[in-house]
Amino acid sequence: MIRVQEIGKAYRSGRRQVEALDEVSCTVQQGETLAVVGKSGSGKTTLLNCIGGLERPDSGRIACLGENIHELSRRALSMFQREHLGFVFQFGNLLSYLTVHENIEFPLALNRVPRRERDLRVSALLERIGLGNSARALPGELSGGEVQRISFARAIAHRPQILLADEPTASLDSQTAHDLVQLMLDVVRDQAASLIVTTHDPVVIELTDSIMHLRDGKVVEESRTTVL
Amino acid sequence: MNSGIIGFWLRIASLFLLRSRRTTVVLSLMVLLSVSILIFLSSLAVGINDAMVRNSVSLYSGHVAGFNLAADLTPERLRIDGVDAVVKRIENRGLLQHDDRFEPVTLIASNPADEIANTALWRKISAGKYPQNGKAEILLSEYLSERLGLGIGEQLQFRRDPVSSPVTFRITGVYRTGIDKLDRGLAFCPPAILPDDNARWSAAIFLRDGIEVENIVRRYRERFSTAAQFKSWHELMPDLRQLIDLNYVSMSIVTFIVFGLVAVGVSSAFVIFILKNLREYGIVKSMGVTPFEIGLLIALEVGLMNVIACIGGVALGIIASQVMSSIGIDLTAFTSHNRYFAVSGVVIPRLTPYSLWVPPAVALGFGLVASIWPTMLVVRGRTADILRGI
Ligand SMILES: Nc1ncnc2c1ncn2[C@@H]1O[C@H](COP(=O)(O)OP(=O)(O)OP(=O)(O)O)[C@@H](O)[C@H]1O
Ligand SMILES: [Mg+2]
């Protein structure tokens, strides 16, 4: 479960002060999905980064799986991230010098999953995303959509409880985007994980449980998708 | 921390190096060449030191000089383990006389065959030849022959003091070494020509290659009576000793400077390399890799590259110095006026533990230093900023 309570984050660049997040709160239960939408610059990425521990909010509290992640030590935060978190960014998720197989294997090795089990899990994931034949390819040899699917496979390989995706479908056609989101939802249901995805993509919005609108760092609307 | 996790990072580091082939090759080549060049240069420095010692020692004095040795102490007894040859010399102080000219001299009586086999003085004979055993023949320095106004084939007298009876010698050769001490009042004749030749004697003792001279001197001092004195070339030629130490010091300084520069080069190259792929390090951090592990990864990348480059560099350095030592490097053009190269200017590079281990060890040490800057760059940057490309 993810519980965000009134977090604020401001950036100062020169004289200008930007309120990237202002009293933002939200809760995502296990097995639930939340889409965060809003114009460019509304604070979506900042919110995800704060939840994932990549950035520290100025105020408020964030609890992931009951842990106050910004109160953890640096090392404990790293350990939390490698065990419970899966990130998908808009682009450039993969390590260019590792093959597809090695990229997906990376979080498993970090979590000390034994070799045989790693290989089994990676192969299963590759089958599931329809890239069973690309295990030994390097990221540079793949299309943007393929790379995004692999990034997703890597984000879920260690079966994290929390999935954070920042515009994962931005570079995909609607069919591929739909497949990818469907896959995410399957994982969320199967593993009772919580997913927060930022997006502009109607395909994504359609499939999530609830939506949160941000404007200039403030929550302007929150709704259950089914109600819309 | 267990070996499993080190193994994992080692694997990632080697994949990184393997798949960034071009950069790895260029950087390794830089390290490899510096290591091999420095190994060769230090083997050359050792070779130059050897040549100076060989020249200085082989011309006349030997590695160890023995003085005031009793007549019953035979050269055989001095030939202990590590000693190659002992030349027995009897020093006769006296006067050389021709007509009304007198010159003070130390006339060395020694076996011509021994001298020719072990010392290089005969190579410095500028006219004539070495005296023959059993004959009343004498070899003079050019200085003495000029002072006496005598040439080859002419005769002169030696006497221990103005009132003792003279012995007549025929001059067979004159020499000139370029070293003042030898070029002044010294002359050579075969043994058993002069009367009461059974006096105390001196020894020029030659050691085999690589034998530590101080050990031999210590053993002599333990073994023989206090009347006998032994001095190593270190004591006889402190200036040469210092010159050799100076050579080592300057070689070490050069090694450090070169690898300091190489380390800056490697470090900058890695920083550029990492900056180019900085986003990937942000991704790695977002997956929960600790700063320590990032430092470990980068150190392994730099370290592994250095180890491989050092192995290649050591191999190449060994080959280069072996090849050159089988040929020998003739530096006569640079040494002909130098008294430490009086006999020959040929330098034979020699590998020592010093010349073999210092370059790769310094390269590896600096390699680790080189990984600090790129590590700081990644660790200090906030993950969110790295991912935003700030
Ligand atoms: N490190 C930073 N320094 C200064 N300002 C920043 C920084 N990061 C974000 N901002 C500002 O904070 C605001 C929110 O940025 P954020 O990236 O969260 O927006 P976003 O909703 O993800 O936009 P987009 O849809 O374009 O990705 C923006 O105005 C941005 O300029
Ligand atoms: Mg964004």
Describe this structure in words.
The complex is a heterodimer of chains A (228) and B (390). Chain A is α/β, with parallel strands linked by helices. Chain A has a domain at 2-93 and 161-224: 3-Layer(aba) Sandwich (Rossmann fold). The model of chain A has no long low-confidence stretch (mean pLDDT 92). In chain A, the strands form two sheets. In chain A, strands 6-7-8-3-9-10 form a six-stranded mixed sheet, with helices on both faces. In chain A, 46% of the residues are buried. Chain A has helices at 44-51, 74-84, 100-110, 115-128, 144-157, 174-191, 202-207; strands at 2-13, 16-28, 33-38, 59-64, 67-68, 85-88, 162-166, 194-198, 210-215, 218-224. In chain A, helix 3 (100-110) packs across helix 4 (115-128). Chain B has a six-stranded mixed barrel. Chain B has a two-stranded antiparallel sheet with strand order 11-12. In chain B, a hairpin with a 2-residue loop joins strand 2 (83-98) and strand 3. In chain B, helix 1 (3-19) packs across helix 11 (291-327) and helix 2 crosses helix 11. The model of chain B has no long low-confidence stretch (mean pLDDT 88). Chains A and B meet through helix 1, helix 2 and helix 3 of A and helix 1, helix 10 and helix 15 of B. The structure holds adenosine-5'-triphosphate (ATP) and magnesium ion. Residues 44-45, 166 of chain A line the site of magnesium ion.
Question: Descriptors for this entry?
Answer:
heterodimer, A: 228 residues, alpha/beta, Rossmann fold, 6-stranded mixed beta sheet, 4-stranded antiparallel beta sheet, 7 helices, B: 390 residues, alpha+beta, 2 domains, 6-stranded mixed β-barrel, two-stranded antiparallel ribbon, 12 strands, 56% helix, elongated, binds adenosine-5'-triphosphate, binds magnesium ion
